[in-house]
Design a protein that fits this description.
163 residues, alpha+beta, Flavocytochrome B2, Chain A, domain 1, four-stranded mixed beta sheet, 6 helices, globular
């Protein structure tokens, strides 16, 4: 079992159900196969916060007075509750303060995969990313906003919201 698989097992086993409003993104892979649905979780009563890459990087644990944030598929999660996994000195600390969707999809700790670009991922990798996104992050951690990149895709009608 890889470390990524272990992370998923541990986090899924400790996940709690969460029924909040979802935003949906349908996309296409280069070969016209459907991409798994991207489900974004935003609470109805809160204005959606958009994080620039610089703003998100301020929540990487280097300032102990700030919570720990990370993004997956453009959704910014407060993972402070999982500080044993994501806090400074922990194995997954590299994930905080950024969107590491590519690395999650590839089950990779290699720094070259610590980014949000999903180009070149296989259908299986995208499906695994969607599964981890839903079963780990949406299930366990509060959503605090979206990334600026995701907001731009929405403005360009590349992402469709469903309410």
């Amino acid at each position: 079992m890889t470390l990524w698989q272990l992370l998923v097992v541990v986090l899924v086993n400790s996940a709690v159900s969460d029924d909040r409003t979802n935003l949906i993104h349908d996309g296409q892979i280069d070969n016209d196969e459907e991409v798994p649905v991207i489900q974004i979780n935003v609470e109805d009563d809160k204005e959606e916060r958009v994080f620039t890459a610089d703003e998100l990087s301020q929540y990487d644990g280097s300032d102990e007075t700030k919570p720990l944030y990370m993004a997956v598929k453009g959704t910014v999660f407060d993972v402070t509750e999982g500080k044993d996994f994501y806090g400074p000195g922990s194995e997954y600390h590299f994930m905080t303060g950024r969107d590491v969707s590519h690395g999650i999809a590839k089950w990779s700790f290699d720094p070259k995969h610590h980014h949000d670009n999903l180009d070149g991922l296989t259908k299986e990798e995208l499906e695994e990313l969607d599964k981890i996104y839903r079963e780990v992050y949406l299930a366990k951690y509060p959503v605090v906003g979206i990334t600026e990149k995701y907001a731009q895709l929405r403005r360009e009608n590349m992402i469709h919201d469903e309410f």
